[in-house]
Design a protein that fits this description.
With 352 residues, the chain is mainly β. It has one domain. The protein is 7% helix and 34% strand. The chain is built from four helices and 19 strands.
Amino acid sequence: MKKKTKASKQKLNNLLMILLLTAVLLIMSTYAWFTANRTVNIDAIDVKVATSSGLQISADGITWKTVLTKDDVFSAYNTYGSSVNQLPSIMAPVSSALELDANGHLKMFFGKVEANLDTTSDTYGQYLLTSTLQTDVASNTVTTTGEFDKGYYMAFDVFLKVETEASELYMSGSVTEPTTVKGLANAARVALIKGPNTAAVDATSGEIQALPTTGGTVMMWEPNADAHTINGVNNATALGWATITAGEGNGTIAYDGVKAEKAGVVLADATAAKDPDTFAAATPTWATPKSGTPSMLMPGGLAAGVTKYRIYLWVEGQDVDCENNASGTDVQYDLSFSLDPFATATGGGTNP
């Protein structure tokens, strides 16, 4: 990809897009994969995208704006018939090994953990994990009767249009608990799928909407990767997955995401080493500390024209910090994108 001239880079200088995703998660008593099997109630989701200096954004490939709101994303199905924008009012822990399905969507698995009370079983008294493959669904098709059988995480498409090529694109952000800090943000994940094809600047809406994410680039961000509560530490010890200490500055803990459906896996054995057919390493593209502002280089930059991104937000059940005591709090996702490295970065994070 050609380098921009200094002049053109200046023209598109600094912040091009700010994506603010606020998910207030109110949940009932939970523990490691939320063994109480209760969902996460989202009190409010605020999605706002602001752009400047030549970059435009759209939820349907028809209406181009400098600010995209939650309503734009939610109602995109009215003009973008094939959209599958999932913005549920209930969430629950899920897991992914970052593989794509045939539709170019991230394979996500809902995990349900129950104690085995069968006294004749070899695993009597242990927690067993059952993983179930999820299918992304449009929010207008999700009901709120009881616990969902679908729609446990957030997923939506956005289209970015830029007149001239941008060889570098950076992402920054944070995932925090703005009210009561219990450690749930330590289990948060963000994934972006960059489509492999770009439509021309003057492409029709049909051509833009047809852009695939199949065969695209999957990027996953693990924020707060070095932070763990004492309850997360105890959970890691109980499962035998890691030896860590509470607080910040502890480094990234490797974990294995779910890649296939299976019932009755002993929770402590939910690893690729013990069950490679069901679990696989979920290696983050970027793993950043809780403190500081990361500056993460996005692979490939932006080609001139229209590029499709699919964004996923979830609570990772295989993270040791996804445990009962992290319940009853709210989590706020803040993402921002720029053509230049973020000046306030503290050096945290892993670039591709």
